[in-house]
UniProtKB/TrEMBL annotation:
Residue span(s) of domain Spore germination GerAC-like C-terminal: 195-346
Protein's name in the database: Ger(X)C family spore germination protein
Family: Belongs to the GerABKC lipoprotein family.
Source superkingdom: Bacteria
Length: 352
């Protein structure tokens, strides 16, 4: 009998772990969070869907303080429900914050563990208060437009970068790996408009890519883009798949990389009845030329957004890797070759 009582007492303590759980009806689940930075002060914007039996709408809540966690706690304190960021889908920061540096903000997000590391990270190309006002005014449903915009099975486009928070955290603490972050603003006839991608170096914005350059960035990184490219006015082709092979060498302290990009394409339309040989030749020349211009841009910015330094980690010591962006990347030579396979021509008949 005494043994059974002891077992009951132990089970009482073991099975009481849910005493502090809160019902979902008493929690606020933001879809997007905006973070604005100005002279050491943070302003936070939360996009919270509000769904009832009668209507679906969003609620935009903002507050400011000395740290991100402080502002979130203050918002939660003043609401009738607890703010739960575990299901947050998108984090937006303004351009001033990106140029100042994201190191402290990213470290706070990762260490708090209140926000999932896979949360999408975006830079807003306009003041955040104006952007969220536009989102609020344009919302006709449950306010998930910004979430759907970056979902690959919904509104994501191959001209847009896809950067989760954990990649930014990794790049800040890496000698040989930087990232690009998508940039958006309020749309004129649409809710959201893409304005390109930000080139990040050690967590700071140092340049910008156009949407067309972002497409090439995705192709080089092997992202299954399904993007479309105009070929010298003769045709429009769609990239079905891409892969890349790299061979690196270090010659007299000068890094060299020979890269071969394999593209499978589908011809969408043609103008002037060009041959497949001409389309492939012009596409290869176009991709090679545009990529070299893109590489020169990021090389000048000193940002290794392609992670090319990863190929030389076995050739360089750790002190040398620490100087990769300053001593080696500016002198790096890339020899790019593009090979194209036309998978099919759709419903078009073209000359061989």
């Amino acid at each position: 009998m005494m043994l059974m009582r002891m077992v009951a007492v132990v089970l009482l303590f073991l099975l009481s772990g849910c005493w502090d759980n809160k019902d979902i009806n008493h929690r606020s689940l933001p879809i997007a969070m905006g973070v604005s930075y100005n002279q050491g002060s943070y302003t936070i914007y939360l996009d919270i869907p509000s769904v009832t039996e009668d209507e679906e709408k969003i609620q935009i809540i903002s507050d400011h303080g000395d740290s991100i966690n402080e502002v979130i706690d203050h918002i939660s304190m003043n609401m009738e429900s607890q703010v739960d960021l575990l299901h947050l889908k998108v984090i937006l920061v303004d351009k001033a914050f990106a140029k100042h540096g994201l190191s402290e903000g990213i470290a706070s997000i990762i260490r708090s563990r209140y926000i999932a590391p896979k949360t999408m990270f975006v830079i807003c190309d306009e003041p955040l208060d104006h952007f969220f006002q536009h989102i609020d005014a344009s919302s006709t449903d449950d306010g998930t437009a910004i979430y759907d915009y970056f979902q690959k099975n919904a509104g994501w486009s191959p001209d847009i970068a896809y950067t989760p928070t954990w990649r930014i955290f990794r790049s800040i603490h890496s000698y040989t790996n930087d990232v690009v972050i998508p940039m958006i603003k309020s749309g004129d006839s649409t809710v959201i408009k893409s304005t390109g991608s930000a080139i990040m170096k050690n967590g700071k914005m140092v340049g910008k890519l156009t949407n067309e350059e972002t497409l090439l960035y995705n192709v080089f990184n092997g992202v299954n883009t399904q993007g479309k490219i105009e070929v010298m006015g003769h045709a429009t082709v769609q990239i079905v798949s891409s892969r890349i092979g790299n061979r690196s060498s270090l010659e007299q302290d000068q890094p060299r990389l020979r890269s071969t990009v394999h593209l499978k394409i589908t011809v969408m339309d043609t103008r002037g009845n060009p041959s497949m040989v001409l389309i492939k030749k012009e596409l290869q020349e176009l991709v090679t030329r545009e990529f070299m211009l893109l590489f020169q841009k990021v090389q000048k910015a000193g940002a290794d957004v392609f992670g090319l330094g990863q190929h030389f980690r076995d050739d360089l010591t750790r002190p040398q890797l620490a100087r990769w962006r300053t001593d080696y990347l500016p002198n790096m030579k890339v020899d790019l070759h593009v090979k194209t396979i036309v998978r099919n021509t759709g419903n078009l008949k073209a000359r061989k």
